[in-house]
Amino acid sequence: MQISDSSSRILAGMLEARTGQQLTMSRRWRLETALSQLLRERGIGSIDELITILVMGREPSLSTRVVEALLNNETYFFRDRLPFDLVKTAALPELRNRRAGSRTLRIWSAGCSAGQEVYSLAMLFAEDPASWAGWNIDILGTDVSEGMVERARSGTYTQFEVQRGLGIQQMIRWFEEQPGGWRAAEVLRRQVRFQVHNLLEAPPHPGRFDLILCRNVLLYLNENMRRRAFERLSSALAPDGWLMLGAGETVIGQAPSLEADREMRGLYRHRDQAVKAA
């Protein structure tokens, strides 16, 4: 299917205006794949025809569906495993000591897609109940896509999705097989919450988090948008909290208030806290 340059530019502009994400030339090859299901559902013959409908402005809801289809929602349980090992063996024990007085822990997964990262975090706590008995654990997942947030709230995944990143024992222990898929156990669903949120907006309630995961999201933003996102993340991070980014992301040259933790490779913290720990 041929896609004109003008249609590609319009789609790129829509995506950036709504989400801050860029549709770079290296990502434009996936336009046809991303929009194919929507075109079939609506009986639209081509992307250029879709653009004509959008430009006429008669169906505002259609533009929302187009933008959501263009988002990269790739994720899976315990993605890249090592970051979760770091959280489990280093970050959480340290936070447990620091928050022993309040026995409250707040975690934010920004750009959570269909929720696999959030439920992975919930499993870390559920698998160690003795250490967290009596604690108030609040795990928030946010995403700019309404469709992804609804999927995350349901906690239901296909056979293929539930097997990605989970061992058979974890799958059987924490998910219940239902017609059409596997649903996260109630003990996990009680511990998490989800909401639609744009990373470029003011941080979600309660505004200060002990641990923030924002992995493989910022790399899709242009430099100015990325700096703005870092400002939001920094303002939402507790004074002694940690931020985790994706493997290809860094704060260097983009977030002057944040610095890599010298002892926990892959985690970032407020610069003044990093200096104190040196």
Question: What does this entry look like structurally?
Answer:
It comes from Sphingomonas humi. The protein has 278 residues and is an alpha/beta fold. The chain folds into two domains: 5-70, no CATH class; 82-155 and 184-277, 3-Layer(aba) Sandwich (Rossmann fold). It contains 13 helices and ten strands. A hairpin with a 6-residue loop joins β9 and β10 (267-270). α2 (31-42) runs antiparallel to α4. It is globular, with a radius of gyration of 20 Å. 35% of the residues are buried.
| % residues in beta strands | 15-25%
Give the name of the CATH superfamily of the largest domain: Vaccinia Virus protein VP39
Poorly predicted regions: 274-278
Q: What's the shape? A: globular
Domain CheR-type methyltransferase: 1-275
Pfam family, one: CheR
InterPro entries: Bact_Chemotaxis_MeTrfase (IPR050903), CheR_C (IPR022642), CheR_MeTrfase (IPR000780), SAM-dependent_MTases_sf (IPR029063)
Organism: Sphingomonas humi
Characteristic key phrases:
278 residues, alpha/beta, Rossmann fold, 2 domains, seven-stranded mixed β-sheet, three-stranded antiparallel β-sheet, 13 helices, 10 strands, disordered C terminus, CheR_MeTrfase
Question: Would you kindly provide a brief summary of this structure?
Answer:
InterPro entries: Bact_Chemotaxis_MeTrfase, CheR_C, CheR_MeTrfase, SAM-dependent_MTases_sf. The protein contains 13 helices and 10 strands. With 278 residues, it is α/β, with parallel strands linked by helices.
SSE arrangement:
Elements: H1 5-19, H2 31-42, H3 47-56, H4 60-70, H5 82-98, E1 104-110, H6 116-126, H7 129-132, E2 136-143, H8 146-154, E3 156-157, H9 159-163, H10 168-174, E4 175-178, E5 181-184, H11 186-189, E6 192-196, E7 209-214, H12 223-236, E8 237-245, E9 258-260, E10 267-270, H13 271-277
Parallel strand pairs: 1-2, 1-7, 2-6, 7-8
Antiparallel strand pairs: 3-5, 4-5, 8-10, 9-10
Helix pairs in contact: 1-4, 2-4
